[in-house]
TrEMBL record:
Source species of the chain: Channa argus (Northern snakehead)
PANTHER family (alphabetical): DUAL SPECIFICITY PROTEIN PHOSPHATASE 19 (PTHR46377:SF1)
Domain Tyrosine specific protein phosphatases: 116-185
Sorted UniProt keywords: Hydrolase, Protein phosphatase
GO molecular function: JUN kinase phosphatase activity
Domain Tyrosine-protein phosphatase: 52-196
Keyword Cell cycle: no
InterPro entries: Dual-sp_phosphatase_cat-dom, Prot-tyrosine_phosphatase-like, Tyr_Pase_AS, Tyr_Pase_dom, TYR_PHOSPHATASE_DUAL_dom
This protein's GO CC annotations: cytoplasm
Protein name: Dual specificity protein phosphatase 19
SMART domains, alphabetized: DSPc
Length: 212
């Protein structure tokens, strides 16, 4: 039986099958995206007329969580006044580098991934955006595990919240969020003050997007 490390070492994207992604835009349009072997969008097909439900909009936010769907719709990003995008997905390309500031960390959504090891770098990016009065969108693939874990960790590290407080705040903003069991346990045990003793004065707390 192969170990996880052996499986990863033997991985080749050429062995992957092409996938389609169903996307719902902020206006309720339903699209089907097909991607090339390199991960780039090569075809977009509209499935239905815009009769579905879109996203609830709140323009007063400076920290938001979403799936990869939202970051491929420039209208959505502009409506939410997003200026910075923290991409912690795997294999999701940043489509608007001329219009937005991106940071990409390809994090695997596996219980054994050390999510806390990424929090310092992610928090620095969010801090820099907020110092510029920017709006930060944190996204992974589904907007469920990785992005929510990063925001929970950020609130613990920068705002001094306990795990339960940070978890509740993110859950209120995005009810569909659900860190995988490994991330959940790591964040429960996370002691940000051990590594952040020298972080200076705290900025005003961020307001987190309710599920867009």
């Amino acid at each position: 039986m192969h170990s996880l490390a052996q499986e990863i070492q033997g991985f080749s994207k050429n062995r992957l099958k092409k996938q389609c992604t169903h996307v719902t835009t902020v206006t309720g349009r339903k699209l089907l995206e097909r991607r090339s072997n390199g991960g780039e969008v090569e075809q977009v097909e509209e499935l239905e007329e815009g009769s579905g439900c879109g996203f609830v909009e709140d323009k007063s936010l400076d920290l938001q969580i979403a799936s990869q769907d939202a970051v491929h719709d420039i209208d959505t990003l502009q409506r939410y006044k997003v200026s910075h995008v923290l991409n912690v997905a795997y294999g999701v390309i940043n489509l608007f580098p001329d219009q937005l500031v991106y940071k990409t960390l390809q994090i695997l959504d596996l219980p054994e991934t050390d999510i806390t090891s990424y929090l310092g770098e992610c928090s620095t990016f969010i801090d820099q955006a907020r110092e510029q009065n920017g709006v930060v969108l944190v996204h992974c693939n589904a907007g469920v595990s990785r992005s929510s874990s990063i925001v929970i960790g950020y609130l613990m590290m920068r705002e001094g919240l306990s795990f339960d407080e940070a978890y509740s705040q993110v859950k209120l903003a995005r009810p569909s969020m659900h860190p995988n069991p490994g991330f959940y346990q790591q964040l429960q045990s996370y002691k940000p003050w051990i590594t952040e003793q020298n972080y200076g004065a705290q900025a005003q707390g961020p307001k987190i997007s309710r599920d867009p």
